[in-house]
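Still learning. Show one?

>
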Amino acid sequence: MAEREEVIEVIDLTEFRRNRSKLQQIFGDITKQSAAKQVAIGGAAGWFSGYLFLKVGKIAACSLGTTLLLVQIAQHQGYIQINWNRVNKEVEMAKRKVQLEAKRQYPHIVNDLQRFFQENIFLAGSFAGGFFLGMAF
C-alpha cells in the first residue's frame, strides 16, 4: 500500500496584523462590506452595548451606594474608624498617577479613534445611534 503525503501550507499573518491597530483588527472585515450591512451591524452592536451599559451601570451604582451607606453606618456606630486625612492623601496620589498615565497614552487613543471613525462613518454612526437606543430601553 502506498501512503499519501499531504502538504499543508502555513500562512503567517503576524506581519499583516502588526501594521494594523486593534480596532482595525476587530472591524477590518466589516469595513469592506456594503453600507447597509455596516449600518445594520453597527446599530445592533451599539444597541446591545447601550443596553448592557445601562444594566451594568445600575447594578454598579446600587452596589457602590449600598457599600458607602454601610461604611458610614458602621463608622457612626463605632464599629470602624476611618482616617479621612490618610484616605484623602491616598486618593490625591492615585489621582496624580492616573493623570500622568492618561497624559502619556491619551493622544494616541484619540488619534486612533478619530481615524477609525473617519474611515468607517456608517459603522460608527449607526453604533452611536444604536448605543443611545439601547440606553433608552
About this structure: DSSP finds five helices and no strands in the chain. The CA atoms of residues 9 and 37 lie 33 Å apart. The chain has a mean pLDDT of 83.
